[in-house]
Fold this sequence. Notes:
It is built from 14 helices and 13 strands. It is of the alpha+beta class and about 375 residues long. The chain folds into two domains: about 10-90 and about 125-200, no CATH class; about 220-280 and about 290-375, no CATH class. The mean pLDDT is about 95. The site of one iron/sulfur cluster has 12 residues, from helix 5 and helix 9.
Amino acid sequence: xxxxFSHSVSTEQIRRLAxxxxxxxxxxxxxPHANEAxxxxxxxxxxxxxxxxxxxxxxxxxxxxxxxxxxxxxxxxWARSAIVTLASYNSDAPHSIDAHPEGSGWIARYAWSxxxxxxxxxxxxxxxxxxxxxxxTLEARLRDALPEKTFEARGFVDTGPVNERAxxxxxxLGWGGKNCCLIHPKLGSFVFLSVLFTSLExxxxxxxxxxxxxxxxxxxxxxxxxxxxxxxxxxxDARRCIAYLTIEHKGVLDEALLPGVGRQILGCxxxxxxxxxxxxxxxxxxxxxxxxxxxxxxxxxxxGSLTETEFEKKFNGSPIRRAGYLGLLRNVAVAMGNSGQARxxxxxxxxxxxxxxxxxxxxxxxxxxxTLSLK
Length: 375
Ligand code: B12
Ligand code: SF4
Ligand code: SF4
């Protein structure tokens, strides 16, 4: 690193450093940022409304009783600047809403990633790990470039007490779509966010210009959401979102929502797949986030016949493991019920006797649904 940063770092310098580290885009914003109080109030109202469902980690508070995600300086009082990065996982692979083989399911795009390991073998990759490593490299490069070497810094990808979309907006990286996602005008919304907080006052004094809202009168995402999770105020009731139901919610699923779950077995891409900004978006060449072809439109029977050992082997290192073996089977049972395919009956009948209650309940519901749809 030859560039020598002084006490103020331009957005362009940060961008170059981040792009050299493998990110697609980056911005920097001083803390607290201009919209932090407003974003915090929105977050608090969302929690208050119960829209987070059983994701209690979002409700963590400090000793004074303040929600940690209300503002960056609540959990990290030393933080003076946030470097926010984007990594694109947009590929030219089909979308969930395209024509697909009968009896296939859908695994959300974010979970398709793979990379080639040191032995030259293609392995599943998890964006949390890939980008955590990248953000650590970015931190090391920043330390090399700055005259002041002793400063606090901490990087996060998804899992910390950080309101990442709000920070990305504040850093001028995109607007908050009606589908709730951060949309970058060129990269679209199939982007992962990461944040590096530092204790340095290196952000330009002037706050970044916010990207204008380009949703206009469009409401394709709201109309396409099959479970009615998207609310008009650029917010969602996560308890109705298929991503929540298939990944985060470990118990028995609410039967009223199951027809809407359709064939989604892990996460959901519908509100992003219908978005015109993703049709124009640049396709990524990120070698660590390449799609694994076998995860596109997977056959439900093939997934349903996996043993637990095979599940662990197939999805080791992939975010799919978060659903758990029985959780994935539960989701496959729902998709089988929605498939209209009589061939799934024997497996569903076996699962309807399972010890695991969520799986048993999903299989029972699916058998009833198949009977109705085959009449
Ligand atoms: C909890 C969570 C979920 C929950 C709840 C989602 C939700 N919409 O809140 C569930 C499990 C449903 C979920 C689903 C998904 N998630 Co998620 N999730 C998170 C997590 C951990 C926290 C999000 C959160 O705080 N939600 C609470 C609500 C209130 O906040 P919010 O939608 O983020 O919106 C805030 C701002 O955007 C702002 N805002 C938005 N528009 C506007 C407009 C104005 C005028 C103002 C003032 C403010 C404003 O207001 C909100 C409050 O501050 C973040 C990681 C993180 N630490 O931030 C990832 C994250 C949001 N998820 C991500 C992804 C990829 C997904 C899925 C696409 C995965 C999938 N394919 O299934 C779906 C997308 C569903 C959707 N349409 O949002 C990415 C999003 C990337 C992007 N481009 O936006 C993140 C950032 C993870 C990452 N590091 O990349 N997720
Ligand atoms: S991810 Fe799916 S269920 Fe969730 S809001 Fe988008 S379309 Fe609706
Ligand atoms: S589908 Fe339309 S309304 Fe929804 S996020 Fe995209 S542009 Fe905005």
